[in-house]
Amino acid sequence: MDVNRRDALKILGGTVGASFAAALGSGRAAAQGSSEIAVGSLLDGTGPINIYGLPMIDATKFAIDDINASGGVLGKKLKLVQLDAQSDNQIYAQYATRLLVEDKVAVLMGGITSASREAVRPVVDKYKQVYFYNEQYEGGVCDKLVFCTGVTPAQQLGTLIPWAVTQHGKKVYTLAADYNYGHISADWVKVFLAKAGGTLVNQEFIPLDVVNFDSVIRRIESAKPDVVMSLLVGGNHIAFYRQFAAAGLKRKLPIVSATFGLGNEQVVLAPEEVEGLVVVYPYFQELDNAVNREWVPRWRQRYGQTYAYVTDSACTVWNGWHLWAMAVNRAGSLERGAVIKALESGLTLKSPEGEVTLNPQSHHVVHTVNLARVNNKHGFTLLKTFPNVPPSDTIQVCDLIKNPDQATQYTPKF
């Protein structure tokens, strides 16, 4: 489960004090006067969540080089400080402190699981620096210092669930990862399922280290749902799809997912194991727009023609870095208040996913989202596009322009 905010601060309590806070402030001023601007990235290069982290790390390096090649920020080059959090939330908290206090980064970007984000956020709130969380998540984070560029449940589940109920039937069985993302997202499934006239027949929460799904599959088969909603996460959970197909259920029972593909599961698994599974994201490598037609070849030129697949998470990271650089250049300063004001000015970016807009009130992004089906080529076939979908789950509870002194996360109300 999630790292408790109080525990995260306790981890830091013995090593970080007022002198570091003072050093942080003076270091920021020094960083602005130097020839380079230090920026921090904290992702999983190793550990069980690195199936998501590796493409995000690649996207980080690509984005930094792209920004530098275009003149940098405030006429200076960005100097990337990239740390490996090793899929360990305690390390996330410790390394976030190091980046803010010792490396004096002008912005911190990172976190993959929501638990890792919640390990970082108390550190960010303590040391008062801008933080970007560039991953899809369960929504509701309302924090003046935090900007979330990934899709939220309103954008994913709000489009996927009505489609699934119409296409497959009303009875849904939810499988979710057993930490805060899975639990809160499962609650959102209930919300959107009720709106679509569907029924939840059961929900299960699976720890990240589980690799044997025999008993889970038997319970699904006994429940006789019309469709399975997968909110599974991480390398170990890939085993579910393989075992589900081996049990003969793939031909009988459709799966839809808000997480499948972020770790290139469709590349690891054979088409006969997952072809036909439906997902929803803003970005797919197959998108046909001017920016993506240029971006994917550049990616492959940099990382090799055999690179498996460029994920939605990679694009979301790209968006985060470019939105921040755009805001700093607009502000003409690295000063935190000026940068936040620029980020709250309604920035629009032409991204590989299409045009995205940063909503000022919620610090979340308006996305065009796409339904897509796993094909027999280890990729996706686009099915339907939903233009300019707002993160309404968070917008309806979070207005950081009117109420800036917030650092909380809202969850669904029933």
How does CATH name the architecture of the largest domain? 3-Layer(aba) Sandwich
Q: Determine the number of helices (DSSP H or I, runs of at least 4 residues).
A: 15
CATH topology of the largest domain: Rossmann fold
Largest sheet: 9 strands, mixed
Low-pLDDT stretches? 1-32
Computed CA radius of gyration, to the nearest angstrom? 21 Å
What's the structural domain tally?
A: 2
- Shape, principal axes of CA atoms: globular
The average pLDDT value, as a whole number, equals 92
Beta-strand percentage?
A: 15-25%
Structural class: alpha/beta
- The level-1 CATH class of the largest domain: Alpha Beta
CATH superfamily caption of the largest domain: Response regulator
Q: Can you give the helix content as a percent range?
A: 40-55%
Strand elements, count: 16
Distance between the termini: 22 Å
List keywords for this structure.
43% helix; single chain; Rossmann fold; 2 domains; alpha/beta; 15 helices; 414 residues
What is this structure, in a nutshell?
The protein has helices spanning 5-13, 18-33, 50-69, 89-102, 114-127, 153-168, 180-195, 214-223, 238-246, 265-268, 271-274, 290-303, 312-331, 336-343, 392-395, and strands at residues 36-43, 77-84, 108-110, 131-133, 141-143, 146-148, 171-177, 199-206, 227-231, 255-257, 278-281, 348-351, 354-359, 364-374, 380-389, 407-409.
Write the layout of secondary structure elements.
Elements: H1 5-13, H2 18-33, E1 36-43, H3 50-69, E2 77-84, H4 89-102, E3 108-110, H5 114-127, E4 131-133, E5 141-143, E6 146-148, H6 153-168, E7 171-177, H7 180-195, E8 199-206, H8 214-223, E9 227-231, H9 238-246, E10 255-257, H10 265-268, H11 271-274, E11 278-281, H12 290-303, H13 312-331, H14 336-343, E12 348-351, E13 354-359, E14 364-374, E15 380-389, H15 392-395, E16 407-409
Parallel strand pairs: 1-2, 1-3, 3-4, 4-6, 7-8, 7-9, 9-10, 10-11
Antiparallel strand pairs: 5-16, 11-14, 12-13, 13-14, 14-15
Helix pairs in contact: 1-4, 1-5, 3-13, 4-5, 6-7, 13-14
